[in-house]
Amino acid sequence: MKKEKSAAIVLAAGQGKRMNSKIQKQYLLLKGKPVLYYSLKAMEESFIDEVVLVVGAGEEEYVKQEIVQPGGFHKVKKIVTGGKERYHSVANGIRAVSEDTDYLYIHDGARPFLEKEILERARTCVHQYKACVVGMPVKDTIKIADDDGFGTLTPDRSRVWMIQTPQVFDFSLIKTCYEKLTAQEEELIKQGIKITDDAMVVETFSAVPVKFTEGSYKNIKITTPEDMKIAELFLDGAAEN
Fold it and tell me: Which tens digit of pLDDT belongs to each residue from 32-78?
């Protein structure tokens, strides 16, 4: 019986414009280690079999020499170049993943607090549903605004989730959906449809429903300088424990 094979794409090609830094957020030092280091470490210590790392153009050798090799991240099998949009980067990563992969985990390299328990819950979920995203119920009331900034709708908070990563899929499913996206990209742009995450790709190009599973309120994405301060506090708390 064939052993299940799990691969991961770790996205580290973002520019991080809201960070107000000349250094991309995934390379900023967090307690002496690049932000990207932490998610790669989590993957290295998990059941994931291979990692494809997607980085900005011209950064491939830097990441290999300064992060992957010093970190001992042997599961990083390929480092590929990202694209203009997030979904371009994911598509590039999918093309680099081994064809015999069963399940694909797609994770933002700017989310350093990927825990073993999150990966385990995602694995259980994707086995049953084929399409699974990590997230958490929102804590605040959410309002939907119109084009002029006036409130038009207040969704039931108990049914609203903030979506995180990893987002996990049956590999053949996500590969087929991304191939359809690539073929129909221009038409989507004309229609004003913006693809913002991998779950949306599956929702748009298949009939497979996407199941939510619990992540963690600590599983934040480093986006602004304030996030770096919060991340340091999380690490300080972990060190104390």
Answer: 999 999 999 999 999 999 999 999 999 999 999 999 999 999 999 99
pTM above 0.90, yes or no: yes
CB 110 within 8 A of CB 222: yes
Three-state DSSP state, 39: helix
Give the pair of three-digit tokens for residue 167: 């987002």
Give 23's pLDDT tier (boundaries 50, 70, 90). low
For residue 238, pLDDT beyond 90? no
| Angle made by CA atoms 86, 159, 180, in degrees to the nearest 5 | 30
How is the chain split into domains, by residue range?
A: 6-134+164-236
CATH class label, 6-134+164-236: alpha beta
DSSP H or E segment with residue 126: helix 116-129
What are the start-end ranges of the E strands in the chain? 6-12, 29-30, 33-34, 50-55, 76-81, 103-108, 131-137, 144-145, 151-153, 161-170, 211-214
